[in-house]
Amino acid sequence: VSESFSRRDMLKWMSAGAGAATIGAAAYMYDGNRSPASSTASATSGAPGTTTPPDSGPSNVNVETDMARRTLVVVELEGGNDGQSMVVPYGLGSYYDARPNSAIAENEVLRLDDRFGLHPQLARLHQRGVSIVQGVGSKNPSGSHFEMRARWAEGSPDALGQHTTGFLGRLSDALGDDDAVATAVSIGDGSHPSMLSERGRTVTITNADAASYLTGATDDDILRLRFQTAYRALADLSFDSATVTARHEIMRRTVGFAEAVGVLENDAREGYRDDQLGQGLRLAAQLLGRDVGIRVVHVVAGMDFDTHDDHAGRYSELMGSFDESMDAFMNDITQRGLGGQVLVATVSEFGRTLRDNGSSGLDHGVSSNMLMLGPVNSGLHGEQPAMREVDDGGLATTVGFDDYYATLADRWLGLDAADIVGAGASPLDGIIVGG
Amino acid sequence: VADGTLVHLLGRLTFGPNPQQLERFAGQDTQVVIDTLLSEAPLPISEPSLGSDEDYERVTKWWVDILADPQAGLHERMVWFWHGHLTSSLDKASPRLMVRQQALLREHALGNFRTLLQAITVDGAMLNWLDGNYSSPDDPNENYARELMELFALGLDAGYTERDIRNGAIALSGWWVDDENDDEVRFNDEYEYPSVEFLGATVSTAAEVVDAVCDHPACAPFIAGRLYRSFHGVDPDDATRARLAATFVDNGLEIRPLLEAVVRDPSFLDHRSNRTRSPLEWYVALRHLVQVDVSFWALAELGQLPFHPPNVAGWKESQWSSVGVELTKARLAWDAHWEADAPRTDDPITEFAERCGLVLSEETTDVLRGSIGGEDDWEPFRTVYGLLPLCPEFNLA
Fold first, then answer.
1. Contacts of A188 in chain B (CB under 8 A)
2. Do A203 and B327 touch (CB under 8 A)?
3. CA–CA distance from B82 to each of B67, B79, B85, B114 (Å)?
4. How far apart are the C-alpha atoms of B355 and B389, rounded to whole Å?
5. pLDDT profile of chain A (435 residues), mean per 10
6. Do residue B54 and residue A5 have CB atoms under 8 angstroms apart?
7. Closest chain B C-alpha to A187 CA, distance in angstroms
């Protein structure tokens, strides 16, 4: 990756939907700023294999029963997250046969049951209790990052073109009322294709600064103050023309969003990693804490899950960061009194191959494991695919991701899955507390 | 004060207005301006050099700079129209293939629709984008067949059937992109291509499929309607659509006579300021206002990066105006104004408005005037640069 095409540009490009702009590994190239996995929890967890597995069952948060107050946070792990490293099938001997270089030793796995356990770097989440949906993906898979990212964004597992909007955009269309300043917010550069909507109640913001251009200037910043005051004055003008009126309406709603959300630095909490995922989750908690009608937040992790080489080492770092920031997020929302009303769900375009490749890495696979946090019944859901290679080396899909999406839409948000996802999608039972 | 009619013509028939155009056409008769814009030669284009790991960035910047060229005229506007209509994307096609498709659109932008559709059906970028690549009569891919009719040429529910899609896909199959040999498009003649029923005709080749589509009675009204909407900002009424379609058919699906009929329709002069400026139009106008090369990445943030439509249906007007886009515009306008030059006159509002052909309302002008600082302030005019791109007048086309 050339210097002129910086990491930031790349992310911008990626999140604009450009997908694997440079195909495969290069598009997900890490910039080298990997900090060593230094999470204290994993350091203190000793021999992780001895950790007591959490009981399968409801997590200890009170689930929000009013569905109109529930919110969803979707965390996108771009590049293709290896489900078998996140949830290790340590009790299946074929796992060790297939991965002589990247398998995780049985005594390091954080046990969930006598066959599966979490990656050793996920100690905090193991302690907290997570819900895993196994075997999620497409039954007509493609090995292309861009194709599969686009399908996940659109909500069409088997082929693009089933919808003209994105999955999160349709959630927003169905959830929001006309007065809401925004129903769905994506954190990342560019406009994510999943946020495409009919009613336009989706907002993409880059960082906590987004609203600060239109709100928050003080007397000692006279230029910005004049700019913001004049913008409000423009927004408040009214005219006879329908098109001009519509324009002013957008300006007024933008001022409303900026004021409702405010300058976000003020109430940021600690505990997050200083990387894109950590900053995105921190901002997500701040947005949800505003109680301004935001029901869906999309966080692009900005990590590199495309581990074609050195899988074991890189994946440990990824999970260390994920564990630390996800745990910080759950603490953050609990402190904000939102614990029972926020559901976190991961997405990733595909899993990885069953077998190690020649570079101690894993290539593009098919299904993967998705992780959910919040008011969920912890433990394993879905169905682990057979340890057998399908479609150029991946593991088969046992749960179409439309069913996974349907679970979020129907069981969590109370929406009609057929409308949001498609007629063939059926929600999974038993994952969400009470659902 | 800017001439509203001239501004309308330049805004719809080019990516203007820009200062050079406003000076050039000042005081000219409306019909003369239309005649001139309709007959101007295409911009001379030199192709970008490819072959590095910067290709994706390079081809996008290459085209954005063409679109923002003050000389870009109706031909560029039509290339852009066809890109948004017969979509393909860098998502699935390489920079080399997208540049090749661009040359194709450039060649046929004002040529013959049938020829254009024939060419793009077996274009390498399109074969990748809509999955025709490596399809065979035994394993046909229906994607292109469906979108060819639904989005490119006939419209949803135009009377074709699922069977037409399946059979069309068989006849369209066999084309592939030889990525080991300069991405040349090749046809596999080792397969047997059966004759199939398609839209009431019997076809066995891609060319016959495209001919059957072009001969379908829904084709001319559909294309005429799309072109009309692009220039008028609204859909034509039924009578206008039928009249334009007849013109199109009578001229053998030549695009230029249809375009002339669309532009010379008397309602064209009335259909002004009736839609939101597209992100691309807004971005180009911002560049002309501040006279700074604002990074093309702004278009990604605004949701309209050339060579990158969000899906096969192209960009949707409903996404051009939203809180997210507005927040982005506020940031881009505020950030861009720092580099802009100081005004040459002591009336920056009028000077800047004239530069981008804005006819500002009294109310807007009052607010802008109120934003200008006192004499002790450093460059008190700067807020005007930041605010003008956010005014309603700047955001309508």
1. none
2. yes
3. 14, 5, 5, 13
4. 12
5. 32 36 24 30 37 49 88 96 98 95 96 97 97 97 86 94 93 87 84 85 82 89 92 90 85 90 85 94 94 93 91 97 98 95 97 93 95 96 96 94 98 96 94 89
6. yes
7. 11
